[in-house]
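Memo to structure team: turn this sequence into structure tokens by end of day. - J.P.
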Amino acid sequence: MQITKENLTIIIVTIKSQKIIDGCLRSIDPDIKKIIVENSSNHEFTNYLKEKYKNIECYLTGKNLGMGSGNNFGIEKSKTRYVMILNPDTILKANTLNQIFEISKNLEFAILSPLSDNKDYPNYKIQKELTNKKKGLFEVDQIDGYAMILDKHQFNDNFFDEKIFMYLENDDLCLRTKKDNKKIYIYSHSLISHLGAKAVDKKYLNELEFSRNWHWNWSKFYFRKKHFGFTKAFVSGFFIFFKSILKSLFFLIINNKFKSKIYYCRASGFMNAALNKSSWFRPRLD
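Reply from structure team:
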């Protein structure tokens, strides 16, 4: 089987992404099907996209589902064998997908991704050197979630863990994929640009920082507990938890409320995960 324009759907989960998504959509071949999952009730945004771009379906979730649940929503709506999970702050090169189409011929994989064009920030992790006969194609352990093509037939509808609101949902998917002895590849001749942390309007920067710090620590604990046990998760994160409490109190004393809340969020994320609470924290993006 080979990936083609006809059997691929690109899924983009958005929230407050009006100022960034046009660059992403313009870089995609207009003949390829696209599904936008907007984590809000913003009809104006989705109407704008449907008027401007062809082969696009837009869905409003009515609330912020997060990345994993949002991607699962889009995967469920897709009708093609292959789906490409893409962040709105990414840009495809002119031949990114054509290169992927070519290399995918007769290639059995669960996850396949282009390579980040920023050599300082590779979009994969690898524990040992794994090679493939096809030049430029190499097997990896993990791929960053901003660009990954999934063969839906390899997953039995078990895609992203919806308990994870953000961070490490892609690591969890990749680890489960490797445990099932399925293949994850990077193709180095196919390149993609990731602007990084630009998917949401920068006017929400403070709220996003609170959310990132809370969810990074919640997700780390949950991920470690899920795959390596409670003790490993607790021991690995307790020092950062304790230090975060002290720093939050220090910055509160010197009246730096922003930094005090940053460290409070770090401690709170860890504590909520340790107490088996859900990833309930949401940034205020009104």
